[in-house]
Amino acid sequence: xxxxxxxxxxxxxxxxxxxxxxxxxxxxxxxxxxxxxxxxxxxxxxxxxxxxxxxxxxxxxxxxxxxxxxxxxxxxxxxxxxxxxxxxxxxxxxxxxxxxxxxxxxxxxxxxxxxxxxxxxxxxxxxxxxxxxxxxxxxxxxxxxxxxxxxxxxxxxxxxxxxxxxxxxxxxxxxxxxxxxxxxxxxxxxxxxxxxxxxxxxxxxxxxxxxxxxxxxxxxxxxxxxxxxxxxxxxxxxxxxxxxxxxxxxxxxxxxxxxxxxxxxxxxxxxxxxxxxxxxxxxxxxxxxxxxxxxxxxxxxxxxxxxxxxxxxxxxxxxxxxxxxxxxxxxxxxxxxxxxxxxx
Length: 344
What we know:
By secondary structure, the chain is of the alpha/beta class. Helix content is about 30%, strand content about 20%. The protein has helices at about 15-25, 40-50, 65-75, 90-100, 120-130, 160-170, 190-200, 255-260, 280-290, 310-315, 325-335, and strands spanning about 5-10, 30-35, 50-55, 80-85, 105, 155-160, 180-185, 205-210, 220, 230-235, 240-245, 270-275, 295-300, 320. The strands form three sheets. Strands 8-9-7-6-12-13-14 form a seven-stranded parallel sheet, sandwiched between helices. Strands 2-1-3-4-5 form a five-stranded parallel sheet, with helices on both faces. Strands 10-11 form a two-stranded antiparallel ribbon. Strand 10 and strand 11 (about 240-245) form a beta hairpin. Mean pLDDT is about 90; it is low at about 340-344.
């Protein structure tokens, strides 16, 4: 197999050498060019056609985030942000992933050597295989209130690439959207920044889930991660249960854990599985569908990584498919009140 072609973009020559030395220890990767500014990076992309790019945030004349935004609109490609500003939980990291970056890696601080970069080569290799779609079409912002009647709660699970996907799904949710729970594979500090960012961008109220919280229309709750899974509790008055437990399907928070907790009330559930690596959520989505839930998978063509939806379909858990730009509206449709059904 041909090695993955990598472009390193950083204004520090010392950091470029460090990144190159680490990447070149992996025979699957080949550094084809380096750039110290956004202009040089643009020229290198056009000349060398790299498969993946590492990109710093702080650069002269044009920041890495501004360049990333332009890159994703004109020449979409896999990008791994490498910066002191992309530490776990930073708003910059979440914004970068919402713009289309596949992953973020924090630069080593003074005295740390290359310890923070221990998984950099593997991260770049995995990112290079992500499917990066064309420029995102603009979405119309949802109406403040739709007065649509919903009789199902909405459960969403995602991983790699789903920061942007969840943002786009929620952008079409009205202020009176169905009660929504989201499990996204991210470290706990990232999830806090993610919830805060979403709450400012979309009409529903977005928070980290709290143990014992009741499910309400217009409320979106995101798994806080850390030691906890986000589960459902109850059969009539549904509540949030933050379950402290081991990894499930290799993750905490786990989509399988959230979906499994809803099987008992499956007819009141619409579950969606978004872009992500692996199989978390697949087995429990099959259980949900068999018990009467409506289920939706993100289409292969619009997934950054067609892993979780693919396995869910192979197991029989996906009832319908939707491209990302229609996913939010399709979830609302599955949650709507059909004739002669009482709303939540």
